[in-house]
Design a protein that fits this description.
With 538 residues, this protein is mainly alpha-helical. Helices cover 75% and strands 0% of the residues. The longest helix is centred in the C-terminal third of the chain and has 56 residues. It is globular.
Length: 538
């Protein structure tokens, strides 16, 4: 494999690169040939995991959040992620926009209207009437719980582990480096390479599925704008354009490509949010933003530990409680992205202190998420009609948004914008924002996969980086063209099952970080010399 890598002009670890690429090709081929049987097999595995280990996912993410709060508040909080005299490479604004755009910007566009409306029309908590004021408050609390502190906890813990061991201990930029205190030189052997291959595949398939789903939302928007047929051809064309944009950004690199796209997109997203605030029910939304803070904080302890334990679990009929279909599934899905987002956030966070890293990555995106959902969610529910009296007064116009969400989740955001001025312009802007968010996720993932394969922060050869960007697009295209919706569903089941070992792996990062911190020469005021890997041998 070394010879082949040299002939192809690659600068990478041949084992990680070729094994990852080979498994990707083999798995996609099998998925295309027999999507239904593979989907059934992994659906059974997902059902078992959610039914029997759902409590483990919910408890685990809470434990991770508790650990992050402790380490940020402790005497270790002022350790810099790098040499003692290192300083951040990016301004706070660029740092925030890059980690946000590479993280869950796509999710906010997809679910900003759809998730609150889903819980508003079908309340998950017992005794709550659909479309009532109580249902609206619960819907906001649950949506922000899913995409606030807990989601960013899943990204922050791996990100901290990567940044600490890569920049503090000068270890390779790989997931396996995090486990040096546990594996020692084993990170360079079969176990370490297996961990890195798994991380590459999880990132690749996770982004491919997201690109496939993103093409559905963009296609829905274009269909709404121009009346184009929302079919396979349009989605393939969209994926081709997204992949092309991502490849251009990949070639430009992190500083020019990803940074530029991120700054442009966060500006467009903020403009879209302000437009809704100013042209919608402004006073109602301003009051809603303030009240949503209180709703989130007051309901967070209850939601964070809610296991839906009294639900009638029946994995055969996919009826194991609301939590299994939403929260547990979402945590399992999100954790498959944690190597990608964690390494990406670590890459752009060199020189920051542990305290600055944890508080910044946890709080800044969570705050933006809360404001985003407060504006889009409350406005959507008001348009739909909150309470029996309001819906009765609205007559036939009540329920328009909830009907649109029930018909097509990808169409929800565009149906929402039909109730605002400048409909074609705003819907067109929304299509652009969604497209750039997905392109940014693709190019960020490609750069991270390249780093996982090279173990180096320096970009690999252009052909090497482009290979991963094109692979993400091709996987999504093949799933849509050859396997259709069944293929996408099967892959969703796969990465949910894959989420379990990755979840366990992230759990093991906590003792690894603690062992690493114990090597520091530190008191409450000063730091000693940087530890080295040799300290673990003593």
């Amino acid at each position: 494999m070394d010879t082949l890598a040299r002939r192809l002009g690659l600068r990478t670890d041949p084992t990680i690169f070729f094994m990852s690429a080979g498994i990707m090709v083999a798995f996609v081929a099998a998925l295309i040939v027999a999507p239904a049987p593979i989907g059934d097999m992994f659906a059974t595995g997902r059902a078992w995991i959610v039914t029997n280990l759902g409590w483990f996912f919910i408890l685990g993410v809470n434990a991770w959040l508790g650990f992050l709060i402790w380490v940020a508040a402790s005497r270790f909080g002022h350790i810099r992620l790098g040499p003692r005299d290192s300083r951040p490479e990016y301004t706070n604004l660029s740092w925030f926009t890059m980690l946000f755009a590479g993280g869950i910007g796509t999710v906010l566009m997809f679910w900003g209207v759809a998730e609150p409306i889903s819980h508003f029309s079908a309340p998950p908590l017992p005794g709550v009437e659909p479309y009532s004021a109580a249902a609206a408050k619960d819907a906001m609390s649950i949506a922000i719980y899913h995409l606030g502190l807990h989601t960013w906890t899943i990204f922050t813990l791996p990100g901290l582990a990567f940044a600490y061991f890569i920049y503090r201990y000068d270890l390779p930029i790989r997931v396996s480096s995090v486990f040096y205190p546990l594996l020692k030189d084993g990170i360079y052997g079969p176990v370490g390479k297996t961990i890195d291959i798994f991380a590459v595949l999880g990132t690749l398939f996770g982004v491919a599925v997201s690109l496939g789903l993103g093409s559905s939302q963009i296609a829905a928007g274009l269909s709404e704008l121009f009346g184009w047929q929302d079919g396979v051809t349009l989605k393939v064309l969209i994926l081709s354009v997204l992949t092309a944009v991502a490849v251009v950004s990949i070639v430009a690199g992190l500083d020019s490509g990803v940074k530029l796209l991120s700054n442009i997109n966060i500006g467009l997203a903020v403009a879209l949010m302000i437009f809704v605030l100013l042209t919608g029910s402004t006073l109602f939304l301003l009051r809603g933003i303030v009240e949503t803070f209180g709703l989130y904080l007051s309901n967070l302890p209850r939601l964070a530990f809610w296991n839906d334990m009294l639900a009638d679990g029946n994995p055969v009929t996919d009826d194991w409680g609301w939590q299994g279909g939403w929260t547990v599934f979402y945590w399992a899905w999100t954790v498959t992205w944690s190597p990608f987002i964690g390494l990406f956030v670590a890459r752009i966070s060199k020189g920051r202190t542990i305290r600055e890293f944890v508080l910044g990555v946890l709080l800044a995106p969570s705050l933006f998420t809360l404001i985003w959902f407060a504006i889009f969610g409350w406005q959507a529910m008001e348009i739909d009609g909150i309470g029996a009296a309001a819906r009765a007064a609205m007559g036939d116009s009540a329920g328009q948004i909830s009907d649109a969400v029930a018909e097509s989740v990808p169409l929800a955001m565009f149906a929402f914008f039909e109730h605002f001025p400048f409909v074609p312009l705003v819907q067109g802007l929304a299509v652009v924002v969604v497209a750039i968010f997905f392109a940014t996720s693709s190019d960020s993932a490609s750069l991270v996969i390249d780093m996982l394969c090279t173990g180096d922060s320096k970009p690999g050869p252009v052909r090497q980086r482009v290979f991963w960007g094109v692979s993400e697009g091709l996987v999504a295209v093949m799933l849509i063209v050859l396997a259709g919706d069944t293929g996408i569903t099967a892959l969703q089941q796969v990465i949910t099952v894959v989420g379990l070992p990755i979840f366990v792996m992230v759990c093991l990062m906590i003792p690894s970080i603690i062992l690493g911190l114990q090597q520091e020469e530190i008191d409450h005021i000063t730091l000693g010399k940087r530890p080295t890997v040799a300290d673990f041998e003593s």
